[in-house]
Amino acid sequence: MKRFLPYIAVAFFASVPLWLQDQYFLHTLVVSGIFMLAAMSLNLLLGYTGQLSLGHVAFFGIGAYVSALTSLGFSVSIFGFQITHEPWPPVVGVILGTLVAGICGYLIGKLAFRVRGAYFVIVSISFAEVVRLVALNWVELTNGPLALPGIPPLTIGFEWTGYATLWGKAQNYYVVLVAIIIAYVIIKRLVYSPFGRAMIALRENETLAMSVGISVTKYLVLAAIFAGAMAGTAGGLYAHYIQIIDPMVFMFLNTVTMVIMVITGGKGTLAGPLVGGLIFGLAPVVLRSYVGPELQWILYGLLMILIVFVLPDGIVPAIERWFGRSSGNADDQRPLTLETSKAPQS
Amino acid sequence: MNAETTSRQPILAIEHVAVHFGGLIAISDMNFHVGEGELVSLIGPNGAGKTTAFNVITGFLKPTKGRVTFRGTSLNGLKPHEVTSLGLVRTFQRTSVFDKITVFENVLIGLHRRTAASLFGTLMSLPKERNAEAALREQAWEILKLVGIDHQADELGGSLPYGDQRLLGVALALAADPSALLLDEPVSGMNASETARFVSLLNKLRAKGKTILLVEHDMPMVMGVSDRIVVLNYGRIIANGTPSEIQNDPEVIQAYLGQGVKHA
Amino acid sequence: MDQLLQHLVNTLIMGGTYALLGIGLTLIFGIMKIVNFTHGELYAFGAYMMYFFAVILGMDFFLSIAFAIVAGMVLGAAIEFTLLRTKRGADIDTTMILMIGAWIVLQNAEQLTWGGIAKSVPSPLPTEPLVIGPISISYLRAMVLLIALMLIAGTYLVINRTKLGKAMRATFQDSGTAALMGVNISAIYTMTFALGSALAAAAGALLGPVFVIAPTMGDLASLKAFAIVILGGLGNITGAAIGGFILAFSEEIGAGYISSGYRDAMGFLIIIIVLLFKPTGLFARSERIG
C-alpha cells in the first residue's frame, strides 16, 4: 500500500482541475504548490543535513527576480558600463533563475558553513536581508518598491510545434505539479544514495561522519546548491504565475512559511513538506472566512509552538509510527532512519 | 627510554609532537612509530594525553609543534576526512555510533569512501550506480559478519547493548577501508566475555594485515595482544617496548602506583 | 570634519540603545543558549507600552518609561515560564522554532491590538535642538542616551555586584556545576529572560518617542540585535555593549557616505564579514577545542 501511495497521490492531484470549479481554490493550490516546492528544497538542508537555514526565501526571491528580469529585459549601468538585455522566453528565465539560485547556494554554502548552530542561522537570515535590501534599493534594475509588473506567463513549445502561452490557472497547476514530481524524484534519489547518506551522517554526528571520510563542506555545500536551485525554480514559477514581483517576496515570513511547512509535515521525510505544504497552503482558504490575517498568523504561530510540544517529529513520522504500531511492523517505527537492510533495491 | 624496537617498516610516525592548550601542556614532546602490520598500544594514566594524541594524528586537533606522517605523507594541516582518505581511520571513546540510524545503515555510511557513485548517475538512477549500491550492501553484510553483529542489522545503533555499540564503532571504522586503525579504549565498559570477543576480532584484523594503534586501560588485554607498548605520563613518553619490558620498567610501575593501580 | 563630528554624536546616541538591545539578547544566549527571536517583539512591546502609559493613560513621561520596562520584564518572564521552562535541555533548533512561533504570535497580536497605523509619543522636552558649535542634538535624544547609559551601568552592577548576578555568572560558566552548588537554575533562567526582555523593552520605550511606533518595528530590531551580538561574540556582555556602538557607527557612516537606503544593510554586512574572519566575534578569546 505504502509503495503505491505516491502514484495514487499523483493521480488524484492530476485530476483536480478536471472537477474543481472554484477558481480561487485552484489558484490557492498553484501558489501552495510553488511554496511546497520551496519547502521541499528547504527540507534538504533543514531535514537532511540538519542545518536550520532561515534565509531560504533569498533563493526563492533570486529565482523570481532573475527569471522575471530575463523575460522582461533590463538596462542598467554598472561602473559606467551600460548593460542592456533584450527579453528572452520565460522558460529560459526559469532555467536561468534556477542556475543563478544554485550558484548562490554554492557561494553562500561556502561562506556560511564555516559556522554552525546559532551562528549559521543568523548568517542565513542576514544573507536574505542583504538580498532584500539590494532588491529594494537597486531601483534601476528591480524598480525597487514599485515592483516589476507585466512579467509574461510561461510559454511552452518549440519553433516547429508552435508556442502555447500558459495564461490559465489549470495550465500553471500542471506545470507546478510536474515540477514537484521532478523535485521529489531528484530528492528521493539523492537522499537514498551515498550522497544523501553522507548528509544524514553529518546531521546525526558530524565528528563521526568526518572520521569515516565524509567531507563536511562538500556535502553541506552540495545540499545548499540543490536546495538553492530548487527554491530558485519555485521563485521563477511564482514570478511567471503571479506576473508581478516586488521586494516583499523576500519577506522573512515567507521563509517562516516554508519552515512551518517542513517541521509540521516532518523534517527529513520525503512526504513531510508536501503534507505540511498542503495544510498551510490551504489553511488560509479555510480560515479567511472566519478570521482576519493577523489572527490567522497568530494561529500559525500557536500551531508551530503546539507542534514542538505535541508532535516534535512532525505529522508524517507520527502517522508512520501510528500505522507501524497498529500493524505491529517494527520497521516503520523509525522516522529518522532511511530504510531497512531488507528493503528491496530499486 | 628504549630505542625504536620495531623491525617492521614504520608507516605511522609521530615526531616531536607537542600540544599546548593555552598554558596547559597536554603533550610535551612525543615521538614514536608504528610499523606495518604491528599492534601498538598507547597506555598511561587518565589525562596522560592519549586521546589528545589520537586527535592530533587524525586531524581533529592541530599540534602546537611537530609532525605526523603516514606512509610518507605529512598529515599536518589535513582535515579529518582527508586523513581518513589516506587509510588511517579511528574510533571514538564516546560518540562511537550513529544512534538514531540502524546498524546496517551505520555501516553503509561508513562505506562512504568505497562508493563509486557519481552525482549525475545517481540522479539519473543509472545501472552503474544501482550496481554500486548493491555492491555496497554486500560489503556492509561482510563487515557486520566479520564483527559479529549481523543478527542486529535492523536495530538502531543507539539501542544496542554497550559492548555491541563498541563493536559497531569498529565496524564503522572498518567500513572506511583502513590500512591502519586507531582504536580509542574499545573495551572500556565491556564485561569479560565481551572483551574476549573483542580480542578475537582484533586477532582476525591482524590476520588481515591491519596495522593497529590501541589506547586502552585494560592491562591484561593490552599485555596479551600488543606487539609493543608506548607509555605516556603527563604528556611525555616514559617507556616504549615489548609487553614484558614494560611490565618490568621501574618508571612505569612508579607512574601507575602513583595513580593507584586500576586494572593491572 | 564637522559632518563627521555630527555623525559621531549620532553614533553615540543610537549606540546606547543598540547596546541595551544587544546586552539583553547576549545575556539570554550566554546563559540559556537560546536564540531569542522574540527579542525584537519585546522591543516593540516596550515602545507600545510607552505609548499606552504616556499617551493613553496620560502618565508622566519618565514614569511611563519605568512602567514599560517593568511590563517588558513581566512579558519576558511569562514567555520563559510558558514556553521554555518545559523545554529545558532541548536542542537549539527546537527552542529556536518555539521562539519564532512566539515572535509571530506577539507581532500579530500587536498589530491586532494597536492597528497598522504608526503611533507617536510626544516628547516633554524642548523640541528645538541643542546647538554646540557645529553639532546639534535634540534634547530628547540626549536624554535617551543618558538613560540608556544608566541602564547599562545598572545591568553591570546587577551582574557583577549582586548575589543574583553571581548566580547568573556561575550558570553562564557551567550550569551543571552551578546547580550542584545550590543555584536554582530554573529561577536564574526565568530571571535572565526577564532581565534581557526588560532591556529590550527599555530600548523600545526610549526609541519609541524618537521615531514612530509600528507593529513591524521589532523585525529590524531583532536582526540588529543579532548583528550586535555576533559582533561582540555570543554571550559576551561587554562585547555586546561595544558592538552596539560599532553598529551605530557603521550605520551612520553607511547612511552618510554611501546611501541611506543601505543603512539597515550595514548590520548584515557586519555579520557576514565578522563571521568570515573571526567567527567567535571580535572580543572572544580563543577556546580550547577537544
Can you describe what's shown?
The complex is a heterotrimer of chains A (346), B (264) and C (290). Helices cover 68% and strands 5% of the residues of chain A. Chain A is mainly alpha-helical and 346 residues long. Chain A has one domain (18-157, 164-333). In chain A, strand 1 (74-78) and strand 2 form a beta hairpin. Chain B has 264 residues and is α/β, with parallel strands linked by helices. Chain B has a single domain (10-259), classed as P-loop containing nucleotide triphosphate hydrolases (Rossmann fold, 3-Layer(aba) Sandwich). In chain B, a hairpin with a 2-residue loop joins strand 4 and strand 5. Chain B is globular, with a radius of gyration of 19 Å. Chain C has a domain at 19-217. Chain C has helices at residues 2-32, 39-56, 61-84, 92-114, 139-161, 163-173, 175-180, 185-207, 217-232, 237-258, 265-277, and strands spanning 130-132, 135-137. A two-stranded antiparallel sheet of chain C has the order 1-2. The relative contact order of chain C is 0.21. Chains in contact: A-B, A-C, B-C. Chain A: This is Branched-chain amino acid ABC transporter permease. Chain A: The chain crosses the membrane at residues 30-50, 57-81, 87-108, 120-139, 170-187, 208-229, 241-263, 270-291, 297-316. Chain A: Keywords: Cell membrane, Membrane, Transmembrane, Transmembrane helix. Chain A: Its main location: membrane.
Features:
heterotrimer; A: 346 residues; mainly alpha; two-stranded antiparallel sheet; 14 helices; 68% helix; 5% strand; B: 264 residues; alpha/beta; Rossmann fold; 10 helices; 38% helix; globular; disordered C terminus
